[in-house]
């Protein structure tokens, strides 16, 4: 079920070539064009929290919708779930988060800065050289109070992962959805971790979104399914255009594994700051269901009617973020090229992920061209996210769309007014073809929904 091309890739060194992209350029583009803003910026910003702007929210929705379509609705063995962020406090006792989800921290006695003890190379404060406190364990869960009384009995936590909402609903879903092992439950939602050293823009944030699957299998079939999910999730990033040379699957060493995990591998992308995790695919054994069965006193086993046997399923967990893949898609798509002595910045995003699918331009602001272009925009708007732009030279307007990854530019010109045809310009090749207006919706739909390989092969 797994092809050999995936195995043994941890030593991949990437494509090695010079890239135009830097994190500074991506962060600047994100702010300038409205992909991502710093949270609460008018108040000076809130550390490591980010807001998705008008283009960012479209890109993020396209990513989560692609994941949901590919992982949930197009499969017979998957169902979805949307569990609450606040859960019973006992959940975090059973999962081990209350006792074990900690970082060892030290404080500087002089400047009061806080550091992770395991990341310090010297026994003194890296900021001021001051003396440090003894290391203490600091839980990464955000704590708050539920109801009118702030006492220990009312403490609840913002979930640090979406996974537990799936485990505690295992029996509910099994009964309601009439599923049989093997099957999986997928969920997209916010999680929270009070990281002491966040950073690298969207890469490590305290509030983040996850796309998680818990796939329940029969013990003994777990390793086969673990291989299957490693391959499936690796291929998913390729399907949406990530450069094969900058993607790898890295198996965890024994020292990196959680105590309950039988195995884990990360899908990693080569960011400008180095190879970093996009997604972890773990074989969690029966740890989670057994823990919740013990702590809740409820039976969380599965009875196989055909074989007349009862067992606690093993779990394969492909767990991705949303922000990290979004950042990887942006970084990977970013390109600069010199066209007619000018540098063109272009986001070569897969058309399915692109925030805007097409932009409509009147070549001139006369002859009724703007009115015609607006009518075409309104026609397309019922099917796609479409932009309209009549400001400035046509070359500038193309560049503005190239920079945000809009795959198609549609121009209304003198000839349009004669025969109802427009030019359609393709973002990557910059080639143009003429097309009747009546064919636009079908043509764009075919090109926007095609696999990227297909788009390139049939490029306009
Ligand atoms: Zn200090």
List keywords for this structure.
30% helix; 27% strand; 14 helices; 23 strands; 5-stranded mixed beta sheet; BirA Bifunctional Protein, domain 2; alpha+beta; Rossmann fold; binds zinc ion; single chain; 2 domains
Could you give a quick summary of the protein structure above?
This protein is α+β, with helices and mostly antiparallel strands and 460 residues long.
What oligomeric state do the depicted chains represent? single chain
- According to DSSP, the number of beta strands is 23
Average residue pLDDT: 90
Strand order of the largest sheet: 3-9-10-16-13-12-11
**What is the count of distinct domains?**
2
Shape: globular
The CATH topology of the largest domain: BirA Bifunctional Protein, domain 2
The low-pLDDT segments are: 1-15, 453-460
The rounded distance between the terminal residues' Cα atoms is: 36 Å
Strand content: 25-35%
Biggest pleated sheet: 7 strands, mixed
Helix content: 25-40%
CATH architecture of the largest domain: 2-Layer Sandwich
Number of helices: 14
CATH top-level class of the largest domain: Alpha Beta
Bound molecules: zinc ion
Kindly name the structural category: alpha+beta
Relevant CATH superfamily of the largest domain:
Bira Bifunctional Protein, Domain 2
Which radius of gyration do the C-alpha atoms yield?
25 Å
């Amino acid at each position: 079920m797994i092809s050999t091309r995936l195995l043994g890739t941890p030593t991949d060194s990437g494509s090695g070539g010079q890239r135009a992209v830097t994190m500074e350029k991506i962060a600047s583009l994100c702010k300038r064009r409205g992909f991502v803003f710093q949270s609460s910026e008018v108040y000076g910003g809130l550390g490591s929290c980010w807001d998705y702007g008008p283009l960012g929210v479209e890109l993020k929705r396209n990513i989560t919708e692609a994941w949901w379509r590919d992982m949930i609705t197009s499969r017979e063995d998957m169902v979805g779930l949307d569990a609450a962020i606040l859960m019973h406090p006992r959940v975090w006792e059973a999962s081990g988060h209350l006792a074990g989800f900690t970082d060892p921290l030290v404080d500087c006695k002089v400047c009061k800065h806080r550091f992770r003890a395991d990341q310090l190379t010297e026994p003194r404060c890296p900021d001021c050289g001051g003396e440090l406190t003894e290391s203490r364990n600091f839980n990464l869960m955000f704590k708050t109070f539920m109801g009118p009384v702030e006492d220990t009995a009312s403490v609840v936590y913002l979930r640090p992962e979406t996974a537990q909402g799936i485990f505690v609903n295992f029996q509910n879903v099994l009964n309601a959805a009439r599923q049989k092992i093997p099957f999986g439950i997928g969920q997209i939602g916010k999680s929270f971790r009070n990281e002491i050293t966040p950073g690298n823009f969207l890469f490590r944030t305290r509030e983040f979104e996850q796309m998680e699957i818990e796939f329940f299998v029969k013990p003994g079939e777990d390793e086969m399914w673990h291989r299957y999910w490693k391959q499936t999730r690796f291929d998913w990033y390729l399907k949406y255009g990530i450069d094969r040379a900058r993607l790898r699957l890295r198996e965890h060493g024994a020292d990196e594994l959680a105590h309950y995990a039988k195995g884990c591998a990360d899908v990693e992308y080569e960011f400008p700051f180095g190879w970093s995790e996009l997604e972890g695919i773990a074989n969690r054994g029966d740890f989670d269901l057994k823990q919740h069965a013990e702590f809740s006193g409820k039976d969380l086993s599965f009875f196989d009617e055909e074989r007349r046997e009862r067992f606690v399923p093993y779990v394969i967990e492909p767990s991705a973020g949303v922000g990290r893949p979004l950042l990887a898609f942006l970084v990977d798509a970013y390109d600069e090229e010199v066209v007619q002595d000018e540098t063109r910045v272009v986001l070569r995003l897969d058309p399915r992920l692109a925030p805007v699918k097409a932009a409509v331009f009147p070549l001139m602001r006369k002859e009724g061209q703007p009115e015609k272009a607006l009518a075409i925009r309104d026609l397309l708007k019922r099917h796609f996210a479409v932009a309209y732009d009549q400001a400035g030279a046509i070359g500038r307007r193309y560049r503005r769309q190239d920079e945000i990854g809009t795959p198609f530019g549609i121009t209304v010109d003198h000839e349009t007014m004669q025969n109802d045809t427009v030019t359609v310009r393709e973002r990557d090749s910059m080639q143009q073809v003429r097309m009747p207006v009546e064919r636009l919706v079908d043509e764009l739909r075919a090109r926007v929904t095609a696999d990227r390989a297909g788009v390139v092969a049939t490029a306009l």
